[in-house]
Design goal:
single chain, about 280 residues, alpha/beta, 2 domains, ten-stranded mixed β-sheet, 10 strands, about 20% strand
Amino acid sequence: MSDQALPGPVVVGIDGSDAAIRAAEWAAKEAVHHGVPLRLVYVIQITEEPMASADTYPAEDKYAESSLRAARSAVEATGLPVEIDTAVLSEDVDSALIAESKTATLVCIGSAGIGRVANAVLGSTATTLAEYAQCPVAIIRRFADGPLPEGGFIAVVVDDQPDNHKVMQWAMEEARVRRAPVLALRVGRRWGRFEIGDERFYRRLDAWLRRCPDITVEVASTRMSLARYLEGYFGAVQLVVIGTEDAHRVPQLVGPEGLPIFAHADCSVLVVRGN
């Protein structure tokens, strides 16, 4: 087998924030599940001199190293048997993480975004990665200072889009990794009239139930959008798995922390890229 056939690491964007550390803890389980290393990456933002060395910015370089040490310590404290690699890169943040996605199994970031001064609603890097990364992307919402919650559904829309098989596959695997039930959603606009879509929906879902008999699955139907429907599950959904066609909905799903005037689903998001 050639090196190109080997699976890549689970990459986590680290920026010194608590959100990034929570993302690293979440990603550690993914690395163990896929049997790959966990790669913690700090990107020193360089706009005017893309090829400059991190040594050009000694204060930032020290902050990067301390941030990576903190993230490594948090992962090691989980006790998970994961190999940890760290790196400091010097270039545009979005470009660096998209480049990492070319060889990664998964790229993961905290919901506050990447950068020491994060966007108040959702980091622009999270949105960019969701739409342009070349591997699945997880945006992990930091709920509180404590450990990430283990309870809650893995939510996924069952439809007849070309990438839905891959989306469902990841959702079922996440249910295994997190030991969580799946909330299989039938969204009206994806099937047309419910009466017409019933047979196709249940036939597709039944195939997954037969394939994954160990996973508990609950079914729900709605005529609302995915984001609007999940607002009613505030706190009850830990992760929603979506395809690239829904990547633009990431801000609505993850939502802003501490800005209650914005309605959002209050959950982490995994964006899956179909084959």
